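Lab notebook page, bench 4
Experiment: in silico fold of construct C2
Operator: M.H.
Input chain length: 183 residues
Purpose: comparison with the prior construct
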Amino acid sequence: MNSFMSINDELVIKQCPDVSKGLGVFTTRNLSKGLRLLAETPLLAYESTFDAMEDIERSFECLSFFNQAGFIRLFAGALDITPFLKKIRRWSEIDVARVPNRLRQIVRFNSVEGQGIGCVLAILSSFLNHSCVPNAFLYWNDTLNAVTIHALRNISKGEEVTISYFQESVYLSAPQRNARLAN
């Protein structure tokens, strides 16, 4: 499996062995429990996902050209093929006024909401997949003004780094998690 993109010395983004999961974040070496794997300034931060959905068009227009280009390429649902295209049409050809629903879908599928973080969307963190038994935790660090990812346990070289999409509800039962994922 080739790397799609290197994040840092410890992490790469690449295709998951289960291709239905798309891209994921994988380790390049053994990592220790408690290690901060990533600190990333979010593109967008809100009090809640609802606030993000209500304000996404205005917020998108306020992003730099570079951040808009990264944002619009994020995953926007099961029928979205954009992240997998090797050659994406020129950014200048994308009429953002015609894609407000795509912006909301990107927020829906890539933002994380939880205690201590509100709702944030950060490009690299967007590639973290969900696990009901995650090996990492996403946290808001006020000092850094950034989203940080920390190892919950030792993570082996080549293992996928996963988080729970329900940061505030890590103790939900499997049926409760499945019901929330269905929404």
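Observations: The longest helix spans residues 49-62. The chain is about 25% helix and 25% strand.
Next step: discuss at group meeting.
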